[in-house]
Amino acid sequence: MRVSKFYSALLIGLLAVGFVACNNTVSSTDASKNDGLDYIPGFDPGKADSTKTNKTSSSSTQDGSSDSEVESSASDESSSSVDFSKSKIPVDESGVAVITDEYIDADVSAATASKLDDLKAQLDDNEEVSGFTENSNMRFSVDDLNYSANEYYCYTESQEWYGITKETLLETNLPFLWDGEAYDARAGFILDFSNICQSVYIKKK
C-alpha cells in the first residue's frame, strides 16, 4: 500500500515537471518568433518603407518632367516671339530662311574662282583634298558657319562661284544672326542656300 502511494506521488511529480518544461519551451519559441515583448506587428526597423520610396521617386519624376516642359516651353516662346519686322528675308513657320542672291558675295576674283575649280575637279575625281569639302545639303544653322576657321562658297548651276560671307548675310537683317537681338534663339532657325546654290563648298583658312 505504501509502495503504491509512493509510485503515485512519483508519477504526479514527473507529470508536473514535464508540463512546466513544455510550457517554458513554448513560451521561449513564441518570444523568439515575436521578437520579445517589444515586438510590434508589421514593423521592421531594418526594412525601408517601399510606399514612401515609391512616392518620393514618383515625385522626383514628375518634377523632372515638369522642368523639361518648362524649358521646352521657354525655348518655343523665345523662338515664336522673335521680331522679324526689320528682316529683308521672310522666315517660314518651321524657322527656315531662304537666302536669295542679293545676300551672297558675287565679287569672287578670277584667281580664287580658278583655284576653286581645281579643288572641285579633284573632289569630282574622288581625290582626297585636304581642307576642302562639299556640303550638298545646303542648309546651315548659324553655329554651323564658323568664319574664324573657314571660307564658304556657293557653286551655282551656271558653274559660277559666289562667296557666302558673314557681312553679306548680316545685310538680311535676320535678327537671329551674329550679334542680333534674337541671337539666343538662333538654334530654332536655318539658313537655306538651295535657291541659288547647287552645292556649298567649305574651305579651311
Describe what this molecule looks like in 3D.
The chain has helices at residues 2-33, 50-80, 110-124, 166-170, and strands spanning 96-98, 132-135, 139-140, 150-155, 161-163, 190-192, 199-204. A hairpin with a 5-residue loop joins strand 4 (150-155) and strand 5 (161-163). The strands form two sheets. The protein has a four-stranded antiparallel β-sheet, covered by helices on one side. The chain has a three-stranded mixed β-sheet with strand order 1-6-3, with no helix packed on it. The protein has four helices and seven strands. Residues 25-37 and 45-77 have low confidence and may be disordered. It is α+β, with helices and mostly antiparallel strands and 205 residues long.
Q: Numbering strands along the chain, what is their spatial order in the largest sheet? A: 2-7-4-5
The overall average pLDDT, rounded, is 77
Low-pLDDT stretches: 25-37, 45-77
Could you tell me how far the N terminus lies from the C terminus, measured between alpha carbons in angstroms? 130 Å
H/E element string? HHEHEEEEHEE
Q: Rounded to an integer, what's the Rg over CA atoms? A: 43 Å
Helix content: 40-55%
Count the beta strands: 7
SS content category: alpha+beta
